[in-house]
Amino acid sequence: MRPLDGTALKRLHRDWRRRTPERLALVLDGVQNPFNVGAILRTAAAYRVDDLWLAGHTAHPADAKVRKTALGSDRFVPWHLVERGVDAVAAAHGSGYRVVAVELADAARPLHEIDLGGEICLVLGHEDRGVGSDVMAASDAVGYLPQLGRIGSLNVATAAALAIYEVRRRSWTAER
What we know:
Number of domains: 1
């Protein structure tokens, strides 16, 4: 077995794009660390995020540290600046998305138990404070990523990658 060459890799990616008709969006609610925003942008480009709302004090894609981590992937993800997280949720609803906040909260359900079919917008929050309570209240559901170890939370970029993958995986395994 050997790695795919450029043509085979393009063919593989094209096949997966055809299998994935659903739109996916993200809201970053005050994600301040530019390296986290860059990593999220890179994952968003890899998994075809169709809309990205940057709310509050989220690091701007033009920031040098964001660009260093994103490696140019920001040009593949349409992004919008909004003042508040609730404005981003309203914009996502207006664009036809069902909004799911990813947060360790008392009323949250494991992400794998939430209906993730159709057009989904995931909300991820500040590195320490998480998703704002007003944003969670405006969301259609709140889910968390179950963890087994002694560490109680994940880096926001890692949580974003896992949640994005879970949404895409569900669409690939759904009965059509």
